[in-house]
Amino acid sequence: MNEADGHFTLLPDLAVRPLGGAVIWANDEFFAEKENLINPGVPEYRPSTFGHKGQIYDGWETRRRRGAPGDDSAIVRLGVPGVIRGVVVDTAWFRGNYPPAVSLSALEIRGYLSAETLACRTDWVTLVDRAPVAGDTRNPFAVDSDKRWTHVRLTVHPDGGVARLRVHGEGRPDPDLFGLGPLDLAALENGALVLDCSNRFYSSPNQLLYPGSARSMGDGWETSRRRDDGNDWVRIRLAGPGLIRLAEIDTSYFLGNSPGAARLTGRTNDGTEVELLPRTELLPDTRHRFPITPMAASVEEVRLDIYPDGGLARLRLYGELGA
Prior knowledge:
- By secondary structure, this protein is an all-beta fold.
- It folds into two domains: 7-171, Jelly Rolls, CATH 2.60.120; 183-321, Sandwich (Jelly Rolls), CATH 2.60.120.
- 2% of the residues lie in helices and 42% in strands.
- β2 and β3 form a beta hairpin.
- The longest helix has 6 residues, at 115-120.
- The chain is globular and about 65 Å long.
């Protein structure tokens, strides 16, 4: 994959299972289960591992159509609905059984419809026109749409196997629910987004904004060891301009590699910097909760500095939307 073609892959994968994504329907999954499409890890392959239906693949694979009309499809409910900037159709390990072409469409659904009802809908909007793909390859496709989507449908033409589907974009909350009750202004599902960071050697900083608790050290953000006098940092665009009341900096699972200290700085819409949390020592493997002194002005971005490097599981910034 050309780096220029896949720049959107730095954005979070809105469909991945740890974010709550689910493959809710497929018209065929004879050789390999549809659920594999959104597994978080890289596809694996063990040669000569045969089950009752043939070689076992870490992906979704349909039977050979043998001239039967139509194509095969799978529907994914995004874990975080939002704006899709690009998708990657990964055909890793599928060499003689990958589809010649794929396409992708999407829907925004309010409420909760059954998978069967969604499969019969005729108002799916095409985001990626039918396009050729290569086997055993990460095939990237940019998407030009600023609309919010809740579901995507991957279609393989006419059949075959796909290892993973990555749907990269920015979270957009349900406008009917947004702002009801306490709000985590740094949550990916509420529309927060990592804008930049100093280092992403071991893992993506997007995981700082994931819902739920981290399940392992690999489920957070970890930087490489610094050999200079600097420190690592990450910039986050909040769900909206807001007043932060409570910060949670979680070093769970990071024991010998947690940061020694952290600092939080906010930025208002006129560029003014506001200190939210002064440089404060951190403990390993601990959920730290710090009250934030009420501010007179809302902030729209936050910079988290860690000293000098290391790993964090999650960052929560609780508050309310402000002017």
